[in-house]
């Protein structure tokens, strides 16, 4: 763990830095990786889109969501220079706390199986694959 890192909600002015972080962190690109989509996300659950910050530098992020029934987490990323310091786990715990405060009792996380380290991190955070669920999607 590192003491200099602080956690705060993402703001609209942070969006370019978040998009840059995703590129540097080699997260799996998605069709919604653009400023407009992130701005919409911020208006929905701004307190759940959490950043890890070192001074003025955004070094990690995790998007949480809450629909009143279930929580979700996606797009966990940590800058390569800041990995192996516990920041990813701290982001997960921070979003879990915020979800719990909203009344959430079940959280799901979208995990790309081909993203190095992702399945292990989520397993270490206490999350399990759900063999009863297969995800279906449609880009509209």
Provide the residue-averaged pLDDT: 89
Counted up, domains total 1
* Gap between N and C termini: 40 Å
Q: Given the helix and strand composition, which structural class is it?
A: alpha+beta
The helix content, as a percent range, equals 25-40%
Please outline what is shown here.
With 140 residues, the chain is an alpha+beta fold. The protein has four helices and five strands; from the N terminus they run βααβββαβα.
Give a written overview of the molecule:
This protein has one domain (5-124): Gcn5-related N-acetyltransferase (GNAT) (Aminopeptidase, 3-Layer(aba) Sandwich), CATH 3.40.630. Helix content is 31%, strand content 23%. It contains four helices and five strands, in the order βααβββαβα. It has helices at residues 15-24, 35-45, 87-101, 118-124, and strands at 5-9, 49-54, 57-66, 71-78, 107-109.
Main attributes of the structure:
140 residues; Aminopeptidase
Strands, helices and their partners?
Layout: E1 5-9, H1 15-24, H2 35-45, E2 49-54, E3 57-66, E4 71-78, H3 87-101, E5 107-109, H4 118-124
Parallel strand pairs: 4-5
Antiparallel strand pairs: 1-2, 2-3, 3-4
